Amino acid sequence: MSSPVKYLEWDSRFFNFPVYKITVTNGLDFEKTLSQTEDSQVLYYVFSDSIITNDNILSKYNGKLVDEKVILNKTGLQFKDTFKNPIEEYREHTPNDDLYQLAKISGEYSRYKTDDRLPSYTFDRMYNLWIENSCKNDDCIIYICRQDQRIVGFITLEIGSNSGTIGLIAVHDSMHGKGIGYELMRKAENHLVGLGIDTILVATQRSNENALNFYRRLEYGVKTVSNIYHFLINTDNIENSL
C-alpha cells in the first residue's frame, strides 16, 4: 500500500524547498503529519475527497482550498474524419511564441495562478516549462491549428499504455466559436483510436464552467472530484526562494 505522504522531487526543485503531496485517507493523523515540519519551509499539496472543515488546522498551518479538480473521461472512442479547420501535428522540439502564449491561456484557472500566496514567478514559469517539456517528450503528441501563419489553438496528448491524457488545451480568444477546440479534441481521440486505445482523460477545475460544459458536449463524464489545498508553512520569504 502506498504512503499517503509523498515527496515531490520535481516540484521541490522548482520552488527550491521541499514540496509534498498528502492524500487524506481514513486513519491518517493529518495534523500530526503537518506538525512534523512546522519548523521548516514546506509546501504541501493536500488532496481530500471531502472539504476540510477544521478552521484551526487551516489557520495554524496556512492552509487554503485552491482547487476542486475534476477529472473527466470518455471510453469507446470512434474515429472522426471530417475537419473544417487546418489541424496538424507540431513536430518542433521547442515551442514558439504562440505556444507559450496559448499555454498560459490554458492555465487561466490553474491553482498555480489563483493562489496568490505563491511566488509571483510560479504560474508563468510553470506553464513555460510544461509546454517545453511537452515538446521534448516522445510520449506526448501536440496538435495545433494555424490561421494566417499563427498558431491559434493547440492540444497536448500524453500517451499511456491503456489511455491517453490531455494535458493542455487552448484556443485564442479571437478564434472562439469556429469549432477549433472541438476538432483538436477529435484529432486527439483519433490518434488514440489509431493506437488501439479507447479511453481518454482530461482534468479541469469545477470553477471553469465553460470547460466543463465543453467536455460534456463531447460526451465526457466526470470520473473523480478532488479538493486540493495548499498548506504553506514558514514561507514568509517564499518570493526569494529561487
Automatic annotation (TrEMBL):
Q: Does the keyword Acyltransferase apply?
A: yes
What InterPro entries does the annotation carry? Acyl_CoA_acyltransferase, Bact_Acetyltransf, GNAT_dom
Source organism superkingdom? Bacteria
Question: What Gene Ontology molecular-function terms does this entry list?
Answer: acyltransferase activity, transferring groups other than amino-acyl groups
Q: Which UniProt keywords apply?
A: Acyltransferase, Transferase
**Transferase in keyword set:** yes
Concerning Pfam families, the annotation shows: Acetyltransf_1 (PF00583)
PROSITE patterns assigned to the protein according to its UniProt record, in alphabetical order? GNAT
In this chain the N-acetyltransferase domain maps to: 88-242
User: What PANTHER family does the record point to?
Assistant: AMINOALKYLPHOSPHONATE N-ACETYLTRANSFERASE-RELATED, AMINOALKYLPHOSPHONATE N-ACETYLTRANSFERASE-RELATED-RELATED
**What's the name of the protein?**
GNAT family N-acetyltransferase
| Source species of the chain | Gelidibacter salicanalis
